[in-house]
């Protein structure tokens, strides 16, 4: 009898882990679509790209308010529910708003390539680290709110790859990757979507001046 109970609990745990991973993969796939913003800005201009991001934030905010009031908006509310984390259930899901704001502020405050690298750090550094942390994260980093060594290493590699492709000085790419990884490791929850691109963009600008 005890064996059956333990087996059932183990099976439930595996199913729950699989469901959580599917949810995380969907959430981070949507998250990484923000990497399209620099290309859009080049194609249509920074001003229209900012207007597009602002419009998206407003539409999403309206959809979330409607969902919480029992009037889900087609597709947007469904995707929000499917990608929501457990801590978001019954609450306004802030992630997409902070994601859009992070990219919007990067375009507002930084020129190319700082703005583009800031957004790529947000899209891939934060996005990949979360998935890798879920899949392979065993060693947690104290004081980071649950961030893992595996996740932080993948964040470093992702930002380093983007920086190496965009910057002329490899050492600058390393410094930016270290700095971005440190920001991503902060226990800032959804606000890392703003802190990470703003921090990375600022560091790119500082290194360009030095």
Automatic annotation (TrEMBL):
The chain crosses the membrane at residues 30-63, 89-110, 116-136, 148-167. It comes from Spirochaeta africana (strain ATCC 700263 / DSM 8902 / Z-7692). GO terms for molecular function: ATP-dependent diacylglycerol kinase activity. It comes from the Bacteria. This is Dolichol kinase. Keywords: Kinase, Membrane, Transferase, Transmembrane, Transmembrane helix.
């Amino acid at each position: 009898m005890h064996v059956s109970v333990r087996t059932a609990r183990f099976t439930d745990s595996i199913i729950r882990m699989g469901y959580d991973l599917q949810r995380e993969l969907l959430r981070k796939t949507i998250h990484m679509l923000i990497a399209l913003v620099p290309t859009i800005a080049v194609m249509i201009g920074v001003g229209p790209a900012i207007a597009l991001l602002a419009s998206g934030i407003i539409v999403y905010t309206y959809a979330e308010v409607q969902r919480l009031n029992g009037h889900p908006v087609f597709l947007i509310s469904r995707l929000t529910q499917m990608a929501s984390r457990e801590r978001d259930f019954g609450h306004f899901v802030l992630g997409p708003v902070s994601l859009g704001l992070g990219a919007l502020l990067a375009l507002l405050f930084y020129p190319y390539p700082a703005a583009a690298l800031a957004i790529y750090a947000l899209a891939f550094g934060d996005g990949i680290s979360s998935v890798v942390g879920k899949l392979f994260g065993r060693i947690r980093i104290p004081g980071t709110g649950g961030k893992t060594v595996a996740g932080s290493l993948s964040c470093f590699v992702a930002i380093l790859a983007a920086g190496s492709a965009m910057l002329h000085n490899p050492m600058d790419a390393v410094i930016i990757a270290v700095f971005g990884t440190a920001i991503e490791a902060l226990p800032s929850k959804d606000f890392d979507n703003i802190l990470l691109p703003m921090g990375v963009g600022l560091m790119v600008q500082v290194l360009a001046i030095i």
